[in-house]
Design brief:
Length: 229
Amino acid sequence: MDAQTWGQIRQVVAQAQRASMHCSIASVSPEGIPNITRIGTLFLNDSSPTGFFFDTYSATLQPHLKHNAQACIQAVNSSRAFWLKSMMSGQFRTYPGVRLYAEIGELRPATAEEMHQVRRRIAPLKWTRGSKLIWSDFTQVREVHIHAFRWVEYPSMMPKTSSLFLKQADILKQTAIKVQPFSPPLRDRREMKMAYGINAALDQQRSPVKIGQLPVSACLPALIPSRYQ
């Protein structure tokens, strides 16, 4: 995963968390039963495909990760403004979401820098009663090591830099038929001019002329249907 792609992933995840205030983490129980856990404190590192999230209330996620540390993290931009603008223009300017396939580590105490990041994120709502009830006990985190990803894509509406758009453009380029401009010979152009209404013959007369007064050779092309010519 190159630095440009990772930067794009971080941007999409940040937009998704601002819009919906959470990401979804899919895990599987020892019995094979899937579960979705909503996490609002996912942070991705700048330089490498890694990150962390604070784990305080996930009662189901913890036993699942002990059985299988592999999980899928999905972030989708649910902003109404983003979707309305995309639907009206017929194209997404950025990816609407991404799936991150990762290995999630064991619980460990959060560092001072990690505590600073989470306090900065919840600062706009710190004054609320709900913030004091659910966001005042952040002490432990889980590290996330991402090894693969997959964009959330919709056919025909993806940005021009997306893999799906480039794939469709390549198919169209390979199957396109090149049409050369058609220029008929001089003789054919004269016959076409005479066939599309007998204007060529009428223009040569200074006074109005009835069809019966024209030569038969001038009238025939205009009177004969094109499929029989």
